[in-house]
Write a structure and sequence with these properties.
The longest helix has 29 residues. The protein contains 13 helices and 7 strands. It has 334 residues and is α/β, with parallel strands linked by helices. It has a 7-stranded parallel beta sheet with strand order 3-2-1-4-5-6-7, with helices on both faces. Strand 2, helix 4 and strand 3 form a beta-alpha-beta unit. The chain starts with 8 loop residues before the first helix and ends with a helix. 46% of the residues are buried. The chain has one domain: Rossmann fold, CATH 3.40.50.720.
């Protein structure tokens, strides 16, 4: 009988960003926009999902300080995070409007986007699909309730938002869509449940969308953060603990190391989450036609970069000479 591979609980409790660092090559990279002048976003209207914390909250303030008109959305209003952001906007004279949107709700997406469109004068310049959740545990342990929730949030949520904003962008002949995925949308760390599957799906959705809208003046950028200490990991603890509590003991026992860490805080590292808003602001300010399809963001660990390069090469090799060639080249040869 083959000897089982033994993996310690400590290894399995490493967060996605920490684990991914092992794949990084080379030395420390300069953080996004660290040594360049802050871009001017005056006149831009930006709609962001998931603004109660993390990249969304930081981005809402950052873009507003750069001159943008920001629509910061979050679910479950009223809540203290919304009050704090509105108080900051009032005290610092920032153009930030808080709107309630739960990206898993068709009705809230429709109503929230309509409110933002009306306030923006009929079109949103930039959509940042940032809202997302994470879970831990092996795939077999992910019941349909957990699987439906994470796909509804991480994949169907961006799709709802995209479908809501695209008609106005198309009518304006311009627009930008940012989808925040992860380096784990290209690589996989065992025991992180359906997180990578959802991010892989969002990567594919985003690239396909980019080809389909490039002739309409609408550009798409996939932002791939590495490990950052945002609240997604804290929030994942409660979700994983609830899943573990309703999972039969015999199934938990089939994956003892991976299930032992479910509901235990881990991940994120000590990196600066402002790297992501800085990178997005930099790309917003780029001229049309020069914005990249993908932007890995992390000061050290960017193991997805070779995969991104090979993927682009193979897309061009497969479709470059076909009727789809102009679309693919317009997106990938920037």
């Amino acid at each position: 009988m083959p000897k089982k591979l033994e993996i310690s609980r400590r290894h399995l409790m490493m967060g996605a960003g920490i684990a991914a660092t092992a794949f990084a090559a080379g030395g420390v990279h300069v953080r996004a926009d660290e040594n360049s002048a802050a871009p001017d976003l005056t006149g831009k209207s930006i709609l962001i999902t998931g603004c109660s914390s993390g990249f969304g909250r930081l981005g809402a303030e950052h873009y507003a300080r750069l001159g943008a008109k920001v629509f910061a959305t979050m679910r479950n209003l009223p809540r203290p995070e919304a009050d704090e952001l509105m108080a900051l906007a009032a005290s610092d004279d920032l153009d930030i409007t808080v709107i309630e949107i739960d990206v898993t709700s068709d009705a809230q997406v429709e109503a929230g986007v309509a409110e933002a469109l009306a306030a923006a004068g009929g079109a949103i310049d930039v959509l940042v699909n940032n809202a997302g959740i994470a879970l831990s545990g092996p795939i077999e342990v992910q019941d349909i309730e957990a699987t439906r929730l994470i796909f509804d949030t991480n994949v169907f949520g961006p799709q709802r938002m995209i479908r809501a904003v695209l008609p106005a962008m198309r009518a304006a002949g311009a627009g930008q869509v940012f989808n925040v995925t992860s380096q784990l949308g290209r690589l996989i760390v065992p025991g992180l449940a359906q997180y990578s599957p959802t991010k892989f799906a969002l990567e594919a959705l985003s690239e396909q969308l980019a080809y389909e809208t490039v002739t309409q003046g609408i550009e798409v950028t996939i932002v791939q953060p590495g490990g950052y200490p945002t609240k997604i990991w804290e929030n994942s603890v409660a979700l994983a603990a609830a899943l573990k509590a309703r999972t039969p003991e015999e199934l938990l026992a089939a994956y003892p190391q991976m299930t032992a860490s479910m509901g235990v805080a881990s991940g994120g590292g000590d990196t600066d989450p402002m790297d992501v808003p800085r990178a997005i602001a930099e790309i917003i300010a780029m001229p049309v036609g020069e914005r990249p399809l993908r932007r890995p963001v992390h000061p050290v660990a960017r193991p997805q970069e070779p995969i991104n390069e090979v993927s682009a090469q193979q897309q061009l090799a497969m479709l470059g000479g076909s009727p789809y060639g102009p679309l693919v080249k317009a997106v990938l040869t920037r």
